[in-house]
Amino acid sequence: MNIIICGAGEVGTHSAEVLGADGNNITVIDRKPERLEAIEDALDVRTLYGECTHAEALLEAGCANADLLIAATNLDEINLLAAAVASGLGTARTIARVQHSAYFEQRGLDYAQLLGVDHLVCPDYATAVAIAQTVRNPGALAVEHFARGHIEMQQIVVSDNAKVIGTPLAEVRLPGAVRFAAVERDGAAFIPDGRTKIRKGDVVTLIGETTVFEKARKLIHTAADKRKHVVIMGGTPLAVWLCRSLRSRAFSIRLIESDTARAEELSEKLDWVTVLRVNPSDHEALENERLDQVDAFVAVTDDDEDNILNAARAKSMGVRQAVAVLQHATYLHLLKHVGIDVAFSPRVTAVTQIQQLLDDGPIRHLATLAVGIADVYEIRIPTAARKLVDQPLKTVSLPPKTIIAAIQRGDEVKVPGGDDWLAPGDAVVVIAPTENQKQLKSLFAVA
Fold first, then answer.
1. How far apart are CA 354 and CA 26, in angstroms?
2. 17 and 109 fall within a common domain
3. How far from the centroid of its chain's Cα atoms is residue 369's Cα?
4. Nearest of 428, 418, 421, 405 to residue 206 by alpha carbon
5. Are 337 and 376 part of one and the same domain?
6. What's the rounded mean pLDDT across residues 215-232?
7. Once rounded to an integer, what is the mean pLDDT over residues 190-201?
């Protein structure tokens, strides 16, 4: 593929590195010569000095015949405009990186559709969702998210006194938007059916809509959940996404920001969060926050070194879980030596999202629940799949032990029931035994 990348920052550079390694022809545009020189020294890619929004620069980069343009600068408006111009000049597909929720959530207007941009990616949002799930379930065996965080999947150990024990799954009263996807018992995993009875100690996999997931989880894992205390260091856009992802009565959130104006802005925007104006280097001020009583400390400033130091300091002060956000991979090898529990990288998240968008196959593997036993796939329903569409799911003949776990139709995401149906263009999440992959390809192929 001929790919143009606008912006030679962290996301753009990492995109060039990963996509170039896949054998694509990469051209990187930036207006900072030093960034372009750094890329030329490290990667075998073409570079071009210029403005990403100017037609002359885009045409010189080859956008009239390009397969893909990725607009990955740090400015949303530049990215949207660059992608829109490239689309108008003939680029086959465009992806724009955005940070602001107004663009990503399409509040009041579908900006992507208006500007002719094929896809929007928001690394900060995706990273915040991943961090939130880690904070919610630090001991979870596996956590996966689908459909912009509207669908959640978790593996949960069945408590000794769980209400579901001994009851056939067909009789278990789960919320309508949650399903049992897999069961692991005595070291062996299997996909259950309506006759399966859950035992204490089983590890069950639930998949369902995030809004009702917690209610279903309590039927399986009955341990009392106390309110968790979370401290977030840094008032970045990622911090805002994280506060929104954690918003519930289950969390008490304190956000530390040293800049007075930004702290005041955040206190107005996030009225359920306690915003503190504290200098991160003030050790005494951090001690006053009683971090030994905090469940999770998450460092999300724009400085990797500060995030590492503050997360490590919080861990040494007794915080149960220390999380750091890093833009550079340079420091990853240090984390295990300083006590940080987990790290997340928005730039890695961004490239992962882009790679998923570039996967044009009708069936995309999302996750493995149990090796050789059960896998999770995302499948796009083709226009001509007449055997599947416009009929109740309960009448569709699926391969054995195959579950249609979620349907995404436009912006709507739901866990379907037997009376729901599929439509051309839907994206569906399917859970099936590994051996059923060929049958799935045949079933969901164009007729």
1. 14
2. yes
3. 18
4. 405
5. no
6. 81
7. 88
DSSP H helical ranges for 22-54: 33-42
Pairing outcome for strands 374-380 and 363-370: antiparallel
Three-state DSSP class for residue 69 = strand
Residue that is last in its domain, among 220, 244, 272? 220
* Single-letter amino acid code for the residue at 274: T
Structure confidence at residue 138 (pLDDT): 61
- Structural domain range at position 57: 2-121
| Range 399-418 burial, b when 16+ CB lie within 10 A, else e | bebbbbbbbbeeeebbbbee
Cα angle value 330/149/267 (rounded, 5°):
75
The token pair at 162 is 């769980």
Q: How far apart are CA 356 and CA 354, in angstroms?
A: 5
Closest CA to 69 of 359, 410, 360, 358: 358
CA atoms within 13 A on the CB side of 98: 21
Residue at 424: amino acid letter: P
Sequence-ordered list of residues with C-beta below 8 angstroms from that of 391, at least 6 positions apart, any chain: 421
**Exposure of 23 by Cβ count < 10 A (0-12 exposed, 13-18 middle, 19+ buried)?**
exposed
Is the pTM value of this prediction over 0.85? no
H/E run at residue 126: helix 123-136
The total domain count for the chain is 4
The model's confidence at residue 80, banded by pLDDT at 50, 70 and 90, is very high
Residue 51 CB contacts under 8 Å (≥ 6 apart), including other chains: 31, 57
| Tokens 């995302």 belong to residue | 378
The rounded distance, in Å, linking the Cα atoms of 155 and 238 is: 26
Distance (Å, whole) CA 340 – CA 324: 7
The secondary structure of residue 391, as a DSSP letter, is S
- Same domain, yes or no, for 259 and 275? yes
Residues 120, 346 contacting (CB under 8 angstroms): no
282-313: buried (b, 16+ CB within 10 Å) or exposed (e) per residue?
eeeebeebebeebbbbbbbbeebebbbbbbbb
Helix or strand run (H / E) with residue 296? strand 296-299
Please, are residues 131 and 230 in contact by the beta-carbon 8 Å criterion?
A: no
